[in-house]
Write a structure and sequence with these properties.
It is a single chain. With 354 residues, this protein is an alpha+beta fold. It is 37% helix and 18% strand. It has eleven helices and 14 strands. A four-stranded mixed beta sheet has the order 1-10-9-7, sandwiched between helices. A three-stranded antiparallel beta sheet has the order 4-5-6. The protein has a three-stranded antiparallel beta sheet with strand order 8-14-11. It is globular. The chain starts with 20 loop residues before the first helix and ends in an 18-residue tail after the last helix.
Length: 354
């Protein structure tokens, strides 16, 4: 394995961390995302596509995605973000904002999925960057692409299972009169079933790992035996894995299960992740609000607004990206009087105001 990874300080613990076990053992991790949030996600995603706020180009297909492909690519991830946001509010008493909640769109190729944390009557930009990764259907691993770890690492990776049916978008056709008039009773019944399935979309916040856990897998892959022992202690044997790009997914507890071949990824078994995650620890990390990732290689400021300027001599790429988010939040507050969104994304102007 190459040595071009970030080299963070890895802390080894000789005994289990002393966090409150009541949070760990009794936490209700199942949440639901209501239909109105689903519709706002559709609005946000459609707005981003129509205004080219997020590139629609896909390297997998070698061209620009259609709106349908774009929605399908983003909607599960955004639902996972909202599910985790509701989990933090209802289970851990933390109020955080995603970009869906902001009065205007923030831009950048390297941004935390959770943007700000409420402190009293104000919101503080999050320095602890969290990436929420959705899992669907029968996925059995939290996978963190090695390429992303190299270029855009996060402090915490959270896995959220999203129970959105694959045919979710079909129910919209019942609201087109020309289509509805042609539907048989069987079709209408099926559209009703699909619409009912998104009234409250079932989700589960499966678990999380920190940057330190990811770094341990990197070290273990480079032959560090202490890192391997620490990972086995935390997650169990074969419940973490460095997929080099030549292996297929497997189930540590079911030898008969065979998954697909995957690219270079750092992986954590979802079953063990569910058992190992200590939510009181995550709450403390969010409240402390400090980055865990070491220095991120400085690169050009492409993809960020011109108002952010250039990367300063003392900044790494993460420092610059964080400063750019702060600048954009300040500009939003100056323009709207608040950073909070007051109307639907379906009402967001598609052309910039002069």
């Amino acid at each position: 394995m190459g040595s071009c990874f970030l080299k963070p300080v890895v802390i080894y613990f000789s005994t289990a961390l002393n966090f409150s076990q009541s949070w760990h053992l009794k936490m209700q991790t199942k949440v639901s995302v209501p239909k109105d949030s689903y519709l706002e996600i559709l609005a946000f995603t459609t707005y981003a596509y129509l205004t080219n706020k997020i590139t629609a180009y896909s390297g997998l297909i070698g061209g620009v995605r259609t709106l349908g492909q774009y929605i399908e690519n983003f909607i599960y991830g955004k639902i996972a973000e909202v599910a985790f946001q509701r989990f933090l509010r209802d289970r851990l008493g933390l109020e955080v904002l995603t970009d869906l909640d902001l009065a205007d769109f923030i831009v950048g190729p390297y941004i935390s999925n959770l943007v700000a944390l409420r402190k009293g009557d104000e919101y503080e930009a999050l320095r602890l960057w969290i990436e929420v990764k959705e899992v669907r259907r029968d996925q059995r691993w939290l996978l963190v692409p090695a390429s992303a770890v190299r270029s855009r690492p996060y402090d915490v990776y959270v896995s959220v299972w999203v129970g959105l049916p694959g045919a979710h978008i079909a129910w919209l056709t019942k609201h087109v009169p020309e289509v509805m008039n042609k539907m048989s009773s069987e079709w209408r019944d099926q559209m009703k079933v699909i619409e009912e399935s998104i009234e409250n979309i079932p989700c589960e916040v499966v678990g999380f790992v920190t940057w330190n856990d990811v770094a341990l897998v990197i070290r273990a892959g480079e032959g560090d035996h202490r890192a391997r022992e620490e990972l086995d202690r935390r997650f169990g044997h074969r419940s973490w894995y460095y997929f080099s790009g030549r292996e297929s997914l497997f189930d540590p507890d079911d030898p008969s299960w065979k998954g697909s071949k995957v690219r270079e990824n750092i992986g954590f078994s979802l079953k063990r992740l569910r058992e190992a995650s200590d939510w009181s620890r995550l709450r403390e990390l969010i409240l402390k609000n400090e980055r865990l990732v070491g220095k991120v290689e400085t690169r050009r400021a492409g993809g960020f607004p011109k108002s952010c300027g250039r990367v300063r001599p003392h900044e790494d790429y993460r420092d610059f990206a964080f400063r750019c988010i702060e600048i954009q939040l300040e500009n939003i507050k100056r323009r709207y009087g608040t950073i909070l969104r007051k109307e639907s994304w379906f009402a967001q102007p598609l052309t910039p105001s002069l």
